[in-house]
Design a protein that fits this description.
Elements (H helix, E strand, L loop, with lengths): L2 H7 L5 E3 L6 H10 L2 E3 L16 E6 L2 E6 L16 E3 L7 E5 L2 E5 L12 E9 L2 E10 L2
Parallel strand pairs: 1-2, 4-5, 5-7
Antiparallel strand pairs: 3-4, 6-7, 8-9
Amino acid sequence: MRPEALDFLAGCDHIVHGGDIGDADILARLAQIAPLAVVRGNNDREAWARAIPVTATLKVGKVALYAIHDLKELDVDPAAAGVRIVVSGHSHRPSSVERGGVLYINPGSAGRRRFSLPISAAELIIEGDSVRARIVTLVDA
């Protein structure tokens, strides 16, 4: 765990991990910070990862959130299902885009560097049914 990631997560209300976790110890450390929702990524192949679901749905206040590692495997219509936020992680490329009333967010990677991408994380601020996203570069490329 990068200290920058731990500092960023300190005080958060909930953590959503978009997969490619790397090690079960990471989940244990994250769960000490805040309640945790996590999905299995394509690189999570060890025995410890078998019990991790490929999708997760949770509700934060009035807002429904759906997590899936690879958006290409999205098997629901988020807007029709009442989902306001979709969290993914497969590309490790930080992005935040709203389409059809649904916020699609990929926080990037807060662990080991992937390709030449920055080390980043995202924050979702949910107030009532209002959602704002902020992507933060933790370590420059």
